[in-house]
Amino acid sequence: MNTHAQLSFKSINHEMQQLDQNLKKMITAEHPILYSAAEQLFNAGGKRIRPAILLMIAKLITNKDEISDEQKRLAEITEIIHTASLVHDDIIDDCETRRGIETIHNMFNNRIAVLAGDFLFAQSSWYLANLNNSDVVKVISKVITDFAEGEIQQGTKSFDYQISIENYIEKSFYKTASLIANSCKGITMLGTDQTTIQNDFYLYGKHLGLAFQIMDDILDMTSSQEKLGKPAGLDLKNGNLTAPLIFALAEQPKIIKLINQEFENPEDIKKTISMIKQTSGIQKAKDLATEHIQLAVHIINQKYSKKNTKEILLTSYYILNRIN
């Protein structure tokens, strides 16, 4: 399999176009400012990797090559939940841009941004309830609890150079992988009652989500603001110590002094990133992401290889090679 993959959604192209149209209808709000804030988020675009993966899974587990209306709706709900979490993340991280455009709290204010995020969570909950499937509601509702747990863990470990890789992975699960894992499980619950299949795709989503977060943390140190669509080095600035730095500390203990000083000087972030790049920290983090992708892909190859899995495998590998 070529790991230098490009995104390809040919098999679900129609469903993805429909998803974009439906998302705009689903965020309708009576108050113009609230609507404007929500619309701003979805107009910013994004690759929609999460709903695309869900739609691919929906096709993968059926013999009819069809996706039900309920499964399409869950893919839409997942994207709304993800977008709502970004609004709150941007406030906590004081991020000025997202996907190359001004963030909601920067365009309006923190209060409007909090309300916009809450509104999106509320909308997702309403549509989730209308699926009329209490088991799926339970699975997806857990995600929002996990978001809060992840933020608390990140906050309590701020500027803590003793954070372990295990702590980092746990926090990354709550903040990122939980949504993908539970959504993958939910989409299968709407298509089959076989718990083995549901658990397979939960694990697939978990490993995919962890790889995605690790790569995101690598890009925060190796990419530019233009490519990221948000300021580079933001994790360090906010005291969020990630895999590349954790691995680098064993080779560059001098970084600890800069962490303890909370990168107080303007050049400390650049200096720290430069020191990390002189170690094997970034490569070790990439190896960790690769390990999680391989675990995810193994599930597909081992049990679902008789199906048309090319697109979902390419999308999985894309996560390792995305540039933003």
Automatic annotation (TrEMBL):
- Asked if the Swiss-Prot or TrEMBL record annotates the protein with the keyword Isomerase, the reply is no
GO annotation (BP), single = quinone biosynthetic process
Q: GO molecular function: any one? A: prenyltransferase activity
Q: Which InterPro entries match?
A: Isoprenoid_synthase_dom_sf (IPR008949), Polyprenyl_synt (IPR000092), Polyprenyl_synt_CS (IPR033749)
Cofactor section: Mg(2+)
Keywords of this protein's UniProt record, alphabetized?
Chloroplast, Isoprene biosynthesis, Magnesium, Metal-binding, Plastid, Transferase
The record's section on Pfam families has:
polyprenyl_synt
The highest taxon in the source lineage is: Eukaryota
Q: Does the keyword Metal-binding apply?
A: yes
Q: Please report which protein family the annotation says this sequence is part of.
A: Belongs to the FPP/GGPP synthase family.
NCBIfam families (UniProt xref): prenyl_cyano
Could you tell me what this protein is called? Prenyl transferase
Q: Please name the gene that encodes this protein.
A: preA
